[in-house]
């Protein structure tokens, strides 16, 4: 009987370890951001910016917004693409944008521009 009890405890421990490990992995997966590839063309970035902003609020990159600067297409598109990526669950496929974006694990925030 004692042996069976140890087996049950060991099994429950493995199940608990699985759930804890899964939670840690899920938390680590959420620490990603979507950014525009610097090599992406302006035409593609404009399309990405327009599409992302048609799906999520892009007020933060409008003139006077906290993420307006630097005032360039790569920066604004990256912020918009990340907003879209975050709003849709941070799945890799939500950062594809016709192969003009990258999922990164380093926080791209700078100055007053905080990526979520």
From TrEMBL:
Residues 1-22 form the signal peptide. The keyword Signal applies. The keyword Aminoacyl-tRNA synthetase does not apply. Residues 32-115 form the X8 domain. It comes from the Eukaryota. Gene3D superfamilies: 1.20.58.1040. One of its GO terms (cellular component) is plasmodesma. Keywords: Signal. This is X8 domain-containing protein. It comes from Zea mays (Maize).
């Amino acid at each position: 009987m004692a042996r069976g009890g140890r087996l049950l405890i060991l099994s429950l421990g493995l199940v608990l370890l699985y759930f804890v490990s899964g939670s840690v992995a899920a938390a680590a997966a959420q620490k990603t951001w979507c950014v525009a590839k610097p090599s992406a063309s302006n035409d593609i970035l404009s399309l990405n910016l327009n599409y992302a902003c048609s799906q999520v609020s892009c007020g933060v990159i409008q003139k006077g917004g906290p993420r307006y600067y630097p005032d360039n297409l790569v920066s604004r598109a990256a912020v918009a693409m990340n907003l879209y990526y975050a709003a849709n669950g941070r799945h890799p496929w939500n950062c594809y944008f016709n192969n003009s974006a990258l999922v990164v694990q380093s926080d791209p925030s700078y100055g007053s521009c905080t990526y979520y």
